[in-house]
Amino acid sequence: MAGHHPPPAPAPAPPYRLPAHGAPPPYYYQPPRRPPKRTAGGLVVGLAGVVAALGVLAILGFSVLSSLADGAGGQGGGAGGRGGERVTRETATDNKLYRTGALTPVQCRVPLIAPGVASMDRFMNALSSCLDASWSRQFAKADVPFTPPKRVFWSGPGRSPCGTYPSPGASAFYCPANNTMYVGLRHIVETSGGEPLSHFAVFARVIAHEYGHHVQDTSGILTYGHQEMEQSDTAGRNAASRRIELQAQCFAGAFLGAERLTIGMTRAQYVAMIVDVQGRGDERQPVDRRDHGSGRNYAGWVIKGFKGRQLAVCNTWTAPPSTVN
């Protein structure tokens, strides 16, 4: 109907949170935007958007360090160096994981998502079990101990060491204080901008992204990122945050690329996922809140992981600033 504008979709959750111990941390996350609900005719616009996103691969081409790192940290390295431990820059720039090649396919199969929390719960648990198997094998290649994250898939309010849930617009977050992923069974749909349940790749990317933060936590990368944020001004904190977030995007893409055949990643699924992440960029946020990355890069790093799959391509810590802005 002419002149009718649907209400804006609520924003998704911050990708991860630090523990809520007393005073708030010296930085925070502004939930990224969601695109408006797409109509049937809106797919043409979406397809044009993904063509632009695919061009990011050429722009994001860069070399990564080739030597093997000794700096992969142990389990529970998040929350800014729990227990007072500190890690060196090489933990992020030259981590052992980057030398482990592509993720080994685990022949992941996930059920279709039907309306209702029970179906979404089955989907999330099946996908998370695949992520457990995939990343366990990858850490074994690096000879680094790995324990999968705990999962809390909620349908009602609750509390974590990183804060209560749900919060306005929140659908998912990773809490490094207890190595747990938190995802709202209803909220992940409510904050998707009207995405049809048949586009399961959109929801799978959210889970794989939060899991990517656990990978960073276990390997010590998240600890280094938090150190950088604590020692920097607002611009420096946001820059470190973007490298954290965009790497989690790349890790998610690497997993989905490795499992693309058995999970049924069709062209339509891929397009829906890329259009979705393009709409989550923060380029229209105030400068002091640009802590996730532009839509171009937020989609571009998913594409980079999906296409390249080698974990070396996910080294955001040596990437030029233009690719992580």
Please provide a brief summary of the model.
The protein is mainly alpha-helical and 325 residues long. It is 41% helix and 6% strand. The chain has helices at residues 43-54, 56-59, 78-81, 90-93, 117-141, 187-190, 200-219, 221-230, 234-258, 267-278, 295-308; strands at 150-154, 158-160, 163-165, 172-175, 180-184.
Tell me, rounded to a whole number, the average pLDDT. 80
Strand segment tally: 5
> How is the biggest beta sheet arranged?
3 strands, mixed
Helix proportion: 40-55%
Can you characterise this structure?
This protein is mainly alpha-helical and 325 residues long. The protein has one domain. It has eleven helices and five strands. The chain has helices spanning 43-54, 56-59, 78-81, 90-93, 117-141, 187-190, 200-219, 221-230, 234-258, 267-278, 295-308; strands at residues 150-154, 158-160, 163-165, 172-175, 180-184. It has a three-stranded mixed beta sheet. Strands 2-3 form a two-stranded antiparallel sheet. Strand 2 (158-160) and strand 3 form a beta hairpin. The model is unreliable at 1-14 and 18-83 (pLDDT under 50).
